[in-house]
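hey can u check if this looks right to u? its 219 residues, i copy pasted from the old doc so theres a chance i mangled smth
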Amino acid sequence: MAERNDPSSLLHKAAKAALAPLGAQRRGRSRFWYVDNGWHAIAIEFTRASFAKGAGLTLGVCWFWSAKASWSFDALVEHAPYVAFDTAERFAPKIAGIAEMAARHVVATQAVLQTLQSAYEATQPTTPAGNWEHVHSGVLAALLHKTEAATRHLQDAIGPTDGIGWRIERNEFCETLLAHLAAGQDCRTLIETRIRMGRGLLDLPAQAGPVLPGGRAPA
């Protein structure tokens, strides 16, 4: 009877059925799930709202080279409308549908991010300059040895800081990468170090071997 009146219980049951077979893990007892792909994760959050019991959905890629202690939706972001809980009979199939949407997103995103080249092509910036989207495209371009494109993306990412910590960190990261590119140095080791740092900040297991897809794509 408790489950029938508890939307969270119905939600977690639906999420586990749809996402666990794809390798998704739940973060503690939260509404947040993720699929760990070594250099990035597919983040899945069944959101809450103050106006009604129920759940919405936010999906996206979290790049680990951001190296921060919080999860984020950095690319390929999707949302589903909020489903309010009224009765278990009506809520259960609706939340199952949302969980299945999340599963389809995971499968599609895994396919898109199989290679650095496909990831770069699929995640071009759509926001103004001075934003982390440009950092991410710069990182991917640098890994692909697209020096001119990487330099452009990273220069576009740098913006005013106003003393804000994440903006200062963004600029410093970009400037470090730009220095590597200007010196003709490969950025892979630097970026893998950042990924390992990001994984540690999120309490994810350490990776024993290389964390990035191998191979050099044509420039």
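The CA atoms of residues 177 and 187 lie 7 Å apart.
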